[in-house]
Amino acid sequence: MPRAHTAPHRIVIVGGGAGGLERATRLGDRYGKRKRLEITLIDRARTHLWKPLYHRIAAGSMDINDHELDYLAQARWHHFRYQQGRMCGLDRANRRVLLATEIDADGAEVLPARSLPYDTLVVAVGSQTNDFGTPGALHIAIIGAGATGVELSAELHKVVRELVSYGLDRIDPERDIRVTIVEAAPRILPALPERLSAATLRLLQKLNVDVLVNERVTE
To answer: 3-class secondary structure for the chain?
Structure first.
């Protein structure tokens, strides 16, 4: 059925990562408050954390509770709607996003399967981290020498020495903690220019971080 001419245009954004969340926020600030658009953000999680900060959480140098953003609160502050769910299909003929049933760890249904109508659909689901199917790891081993892996190794080096400076004297950071970066490419930071890769390698070596390149982890 055709919609009434007075009804606001419905924009549904699937994916609450950096792209989808910023788009919903900006549209809400500009059009949502005055009801010129009806903006809905869909994400399976209830909170958002910017992925480039994950290495700091892994290193224990950042409290996740201080940096994660609650979608419901953001939606209220910026005049859009938030729906928790996972897109499992798309009915393009009827312009509806299909959301799967959500089950908790005990097998109980948390959210039923449902669908949401849209006039404009924005798909911003991003990507998944590629762990290459590796079924385990080493001492402290970081598999992948991209920007996050390299920064994590430096963060771990810093955190261990801070613990010692605060009085944790049962560990010797030079003897007891070994950090190794394993990279399948010929050099670390393969996406950056070679001069930056070489300079970073020298810094890591000064920190006593073991760097293995041309090495593909299989287990």
So the answer is: CCCCCCCCEEEEEECCCHHHHHHHHHHHHHHHCCCCEEEEEEECCCEECCHHHHHHHHCCCCCHHHCCEEHHHHHHHHCCEEEECCEEEEECCCCEEEECCEECCCCCEEECCEEEECCEEEECCCCCCCCCCCCCCCCEEEECCCHHHHHHHHHHHHHHHHHHHCCCCCCCCCCCCCEEEECCCCCCCCCCCHHHHHHHHHHHHHCCCEEECCCCCCC
What tens digit of pLDDT does each residue of 13-68 get? 999 988 999 999 999 999 998 899 999 999 998 998 876 666 666 666 666 666 78
Residue with tokens 């998944």: 128
pLDDT tens by residue, 108-159: 888 899 999 999 999 998 776 666 666 655 778 888 998 888 988 888 877 7
* pTM exceeds cut of 0.85: no
